[in-house]
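PROTEIN DATA CARD
Card holder: GCN5-related N-acetyltransferase
Chain length: 152
Origin: Leadbetterella byssophila
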Amino acid sequence: MTTTLRPISSVLPEQIQLLANDPRVGKHLRATFPYPYTLDDAKKFLSLCQDDSVFGIFEEKDFVGVVSLQVHHQPEEAEVGYWIGVPYWGQGIATRAVEKVIHQARGRFERLIAKVFLDNPASCRVLEKAGFEYQGVELGEHVYRLTLSETY
Ligand SMILES: CC(C)(COP(=O)(O)OP(=O)(O)OC[C@H]1O[C@@H](n2cnc3c(N)ncnc32)[C@H](O)[C@@H]1OP(=O)(O)O)[C@@H](O)C(=O)NCCC(=O)NCCS
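Structure generated from the sequence above:
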């Protein structure tokens, strides 16, 4: 299977809405990810994205999800976020997408972090497979970290 990341601007709002408008996707994401997820939500999301930080995940030619790097207050740190459309779960796609976004982050950030709701073991597994280290629970979320300078 070939998983690639492309700039989010290459994804149509209709493609995003089709996969994002499922309560199983938004359940483990922050409240800013609405349900129902309308076409206007997808357009608004795209209007706020920057191509060097938000990527469409493609499996062969199919758009299957989104992965992002959100710069933190410390400029050397970014938070990784991701979601995959339900029809594509369980195929290793999130893991491959996170591995690819780690590659994108090298040279730009010293470390990546990720935060996972306590009831989302699949996402914890994704981060562990991609090489993140578990830091513990902080403010009700599992926290993971990857130090990029140590992984060159
Ligand atoms: C979490 C999510 C990104 C996983 O995507 P995916 O493409 O299915 O992930 P992968 O196939 O790469 O890996 C999933 C791993 O979790 C495991 N897993 C799945 N459900 C699990 C569960 N209930 N308990 C423990 N492990 C579980 C899988 O077995 C797999 O591990 P393995 O390869 O060792 O068998 C996807 O379900 C999703 O988008 N969920 C909604 C949004 C979300 O949670 N985003 C992350 C926010 S932190």
